[in-house]
């Protein structure tokens, strides 16, 4: 009896339009969506039509073939993807393995994946990469001029704190609304990092670092007239802001090795958010 119910349920699912089935598959990790291609002939290529791509790459310790297999899998999915647009692309690479000789992700191929989804008019891009290789690749500069990008989330952690942005300006995305920068690092020659954008409504900056040799610590310049939510925490760069439409702000700001400029930095920050309606300040900031 139970077997009959399973068969009946499967028949009911198979009666759904392909568009509905693809919508259901878009909520699964891409690895699981691809597995459904073995269900039946009708399901064989449905995974190539999903709107969301979610890759979680966790290679086996010290196994270079495991890394290659994972990267080949992503290459294959993107190669056969047959939908004109990608709504959401999420890439999580967990590979924090220190030591010489351990296999690393090919960062040039990761750049290629980003360019591929940009070609498919990506709307939401999330990169969560933990990598022990000191040569963590630069993101393609064209990402910061993507005309379709609405949400950009970057969490990029290197074992040597070496990640650097390819550009000092992220204001070139004309429809960007959400920008989240987590565990990122400004370029070594950067004097000003500009995250200004006229369309951004939500901005979160956590643990923004500077690994340069310049005696002058660079500023994060934020000019966001449409911003309604701003969170700034645990960062080494001074923020210089102008946010007249801000509704809510969360500030957890401390600068432990340049106390002489700390008070001025806090004054500049608070002066730029005087119109905020709700303000949360941590004890570190005070």
Descriptive account of the structure:
With 286 residues, the chain is of the alpha/beta class. It is built from six helices and 14 strands. The radius of gyration is 22 Å and the shape is elongated. The termini are far apart. 28% of the residues are buried.
Write a concise keyword list for the protein shown above.
single chain, 286 residues, alpha/beta, nine-stranded parallel sheet, three-stranded parallel sheet, 23% helix
Averaged pLDDT = 78
The percentage of residues in β strands lies in 15-25%
What is the chain-wise order of helices and strands? HHHEHEHEEEEEEEEEEEHE
Shape: elongated
Number of strands: 14
Major beta-sheet overview: 9 strands, parallel
End-to-end CA span:
67 Å
Unreliable stretches covering 5 or more consecutive residues: 96-101, 159-163
Structural class given helices, strands, pairing? alpha/beta
Query: Count the helices. How many?
Result: 6
**Nearest-angstrom radius of gyration?**
22 Å
Helix content: 10-25%
Main sheet: strand order: 1-2-3-4-5-8-11-13-14
